[in-house]
Amino acid sequence: MVSFDEETAQKLRTQVEFYFSDSNLPRDDFLSKEVRKRVDGMVSLQLVCSFSRMRVLLDISRGKIPTFVVTEVADVLRTSDFLKVSADGLRIGRVTKLSKPKEVLEIVDRRTIAASPFEHDTEMEDVVTFFSRYAKLNSVRLPHHVGDKELFCGTVLVEFSSEQEAGDFLKKSLVYGGVDLELIPKREFDKQREARSKELEYSVPRNKFQRGQILRFTLRKIARAEKKESLLVDDKADQLVVPAWSSCEVFKEVFDRFGSVRHIEYSGGMDSGYVCFKNARTATKASSAVEFVGGLIVKNTFSVALETVDEEMEIEVWRRVPLSAKQ
After folding, report:
1. Torsion angles phi and psi, residue 195, rounded to 5
2. Structure confidence by residue, pLDDT tens digits, 145-185
3. CATH class assigned to 111-202
4. Among 31, 200, 272, 320, which has the minimal tally of Cβ within 10 Å of its Cβ?
5. pLDDT digits over 54-99, tens only?
């Protein structure tokens, strides 16, 4: 049997309370869906124990959570005034039902502030310890970067117990790691984040690799058909003979209809090559369109198909793109 020390037990209880809290549950689509599956709002405790943060606390990196561990966690959670545990210890839920999630989120946001800058390798525990010196906290979040979900954005979201406390906190002058912190209301952070997200969505990084903008194209022979509108691809040909086109312009004309093309990598006589579009959005548009029509016509003789490539190959092709084409 497993036995948790007092510190671990407290962390487990705090973590599960956070999962079901007003701060998290309205934002957690997966857990909210699980809660709605039952009238009593109870969720499998074994499922909750399998969440990534719980696995860290339980020191179980993979595999099914053993029943005896779930039982011990249930005993710990029975000491919570916020949570309720089923008699058999297999399900967990809130004591009070979450009502009107949208209104709850609005209240939570009003009592939340955004603090920055923090290093990208900042640990949650360090942040919690720092802000806990000044007030009682409901929750602390480390949002991901809008351009990379694997990275912390450098801004911490701190939720207080009341809107008044959040307002008072904004007036403070704090220093973390030798750097003055900028404190703003969460609504201002949301506006900045939305603007940055749109900026990234519609802009193209200069000289920077962008996943999804490179596709592989393949030539296939078009079989003769009585009707011109019929596009038949000859997949039975033993060998595809492709003219030794000396210029890539023949393909650029084909792909330009979908948006700007940065570069085309192709050697005359080959039956395949790579096209690098201006951005991933254009590449997706081209790929979807080509799939819909069944191929693009080149010189009334060949059909061009597009396919995605894995990240390793995409990076390798990007390295071969001339610097002038990356501007």
Report:
1. -65, -40
2. 776 666 788 899 999 988 898 999 999 899 998 889 999 99
3. alpha beta
4. 320
5. 898 888 877 888 889 899 999 999 999 999 999 999 999 998 888 7
Phi-psi region of 85 (alpha: psi -120 to 50; beta: other; left: phi over 0): beta
- Decide yes or no: CATH 3.30.420.10 for domain 6-94: no
> In whole angstroms, what is the distance from residue 142 CA to residue 124 CA?
7
pTM of the full structure: 0.55
Of how many residues is the chain composed?
A: 327
Classify domain 214-326 at the CATH class level. alpha beta
Residue 174 and residue 165 in contact, taking contact as beta carbons nearer than 8 Å:
no
Rounded to whole angstroms, how far apart are CA atoms 141 and 27?
Answer: 12
Please answer whether residues 276 and 295 qualify as being in contact, where contact means their C-beta atoms are separated by less than 8 angstroms: no
pLDDT digits (tens, 9 = 90+) for 88-142: 999 999 988 887 888 888 889 899 999 999 888 888 889 889 998 888 888 888 9
